[in-house]
């Protein structure tokens, strides 16, 4: 069982958005935020080839205009309005799969494992369909 990274007493319920440590309460977050440092993740390429001598992340490699898979907030909001997704999220197995991906240290491996589950694939496909159909509806209003 994992324990809070700040107090080491309770099971953590939250993750710091800056450094990704797990903590259990507002009190622990307040203690932590004064010493919080962003996580620097190593690149999966040779940094010297790109003129980068230190470890860097995707934000260091791409300018905002270069990101092609960025989904506008308006389309993401369609996900929250979908009864179809809400019904799928009633399934405890799907919720557990989503929690395991969210809490994984290696998210790429967790996604590969989750994509072996038909329920997760169905959920992913419906999310994509809503976002893609939303793009069509937003660009071609009737």
Automatic annotation (TrEMBL):
GO terms for cellular component: cytoplasm; nucleus; pre-snoRNP complex. Keywords: Cytoplasm, Metal-binding, Nucleus, Phosphoprotein, Zinc, Zinc-finger. One of its GO terms (molecular function) is zinc ion binding. Residues 4-36 form the HIT-type domain. This is Zinc finger HIT domain-containing protein 3. GO terms for biological process: box C/D snoRNP assembly; maturation of LSU-rRNA from tricistronic rRNA transcript (SSU-rRNA, 5.8S rRNA, LSU-rRNA); snoRNA localization. PANTHER family: BOX C_D SNORNA PROTEIN 1-RELATED, ZINC FINGER HIT DOMAIN-CONTAINING PROTEIN 3. Thyroid receptor interacting proteins (TRIPs) specifically interact with the ligand binding domain of the thyroid receptor (TR). Requires the presence of thyroid hormone for its interaction. Interacts with NUFIP1. Interacts (via HIT-type zinc finger) with the RUVBL1/RUVBL2 complex in the presence of ADP. It is found in: Cytoplasm; Nucleus. The lineage of its organism: Eukaryota, Metazoa, Chordata, Craniata, Vertebrata.
């Amino acid at each position: 069982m994992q324990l809070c990274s700040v107090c080491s007493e309770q099971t953590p319920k939250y993750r710091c958005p800056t450094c990704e440590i797990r903590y259990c309460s507002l009190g622990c977050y307040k203690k932590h935020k004064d010493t919080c440092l962003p996580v620097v993740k190593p690149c999966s390429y040779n940094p010297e080839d790109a003129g980068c001598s230190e470890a860097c992340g995707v934000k260091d490699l791409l300018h905002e205009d270069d990101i092609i898979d960025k989904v506008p907030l308006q389309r993401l909001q369609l996900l929250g309005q979908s009864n179809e997704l809400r019904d799928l999220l009633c399934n405890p197995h799907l919720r557990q799969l989503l929690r395991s991906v969210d809490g994984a240290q290696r998210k790429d491996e967790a996604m590969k494992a989750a994509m072996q589950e038909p329920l997760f694939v169905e959920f992913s496909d419906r999310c994509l369909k809503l976002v893609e159909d939303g793009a069509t509806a937003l660009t071609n209003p009737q």
